[in-house]
Amino acid sequence: MKIAVLSDIHGNLEALQTVLAKIHALRLDEVVCLGDNIGYGPDSQAVMDLLAEHKIASVLGNHEMAVKNRASLEWFNPMAQKALEITRSQLSGPAVSKIRKLPFFLVKHGLRFVHGVPPANVFLYLFQVPEKKLIQKLDRLQEHICFVGHTHDLGIISWDGACLTRDKLVPGVCQLEENKKYIINAGSVGQPRDGTAAAKFLVYDTQTCQLSVMALDYPFADTGRKIIAAGIPKMYAEKLAVGAEAADKG
Ligand SMILES: [Fe+2]
After folding, report:
1. Statement: residue 247 has pLDDT above 80
2. 77-94: per-residue pLDDT in tens?
3. 179 CA to middle of ligand 1, Å?
């Protein structure tokens, strides 16, 4: 089975449409989203509609959490709060109801999916977890792989029971080993912060244990214009062109 893993679409319809066209062309079996489907971008409602149309399952991200529970807005910096207020005003009642029902994690085909850190943390970043704690988490992980998002950057942590390694992920194919455990960061479809503008997503083949990192060009200038027109802080439009490291949190 070949599974596409998408994260941090962030209301970027052009990037999602490009990614879904590729997924269709590759005839992949299933798609799972790691949350933050909304926020920052201009088309949060349209992104949710498109995910629903394709029956794509998703976990809760921290941006969905801010819609579900307004007290969570305090976690964000003022620019992100402003973007989230606009996002909230764009969402329909049914969309908000749907967000309230999103799970903190999913387990499918022996794989775990969570926004931040396993087993089910939405707000914590992987880089905030001390190595000893990370090893504990990997030891307790029932699944072979946990896919995460949240940082908008790509990366892979592997654990063989004795040695923990952290590596960057770049576009291409890498072979995983069945006897290791992994935490894999899928990067971002719609607000990348890995230094390049392309929309990123992963494809995992459960039979061959091959992981493919996909990077697709899309018309980010169109998305940027829509961000500005919607009154969302301009910095989120500017970052699209460069996939820049953001001053604010995911
Ligand atoms: Fe995010």
Report:
1. no
2. 999 999 999 999 999 999
3. 31
Cα 246 to middle of ligand 1, angstroms: 11
Give the pLDDT band (50/70/90) at residue 242: confident
Q: Which CATH architecture has domain 2-242?
A: 4-Layer Sandwich (3.60)
Distance 151 CA to ligand 1 centre (A): 7
How far, in Å, from the CA of 17 to the mean position of ligand 1?
18
Residue among 224, 213, 247, 245 at smallest CA distance from 22? 213
Question: How many angstroms is it from 243 CA to the middle of ligand 1?
Answer: 13
pLDDT at residue 250 in the model: 61
Return the pLDDT at 154: 97
Centre of ligand 1 to C-alpha 218, Å, is 19
pTM comes to 0.96
Query: If pLDDT is split at 50, 70 and 90, which confidence band does 243 have?
Result: confident
For the chain, the three-class secondary structure string (H helix, E strand, C coil) is CEEEEECCCCCCHHHHHHHHHHHHHCCCCEEEECCCCCCCCCCHHHHHHHHHHCCCEECCCHHHHHHHCHHHHHHCCHHHHHHHHHHHHHCCHHHHHHHHCCCCEEEECCEEEECCECCCECCCCHHHCCHHHHHHHHHHCCCCEEEECCCCCEEEEEECCCCEEEEECCCEEEECCCCCEEEEEECCCCCCCCCCCCEEEEEEECCCCEEEEEEECCCHHHHHHHHHHCCCCCHHHHHHHHCCCCCCCC
Distance from residue 75's CA to the centre of ligand 1 (Å): 13
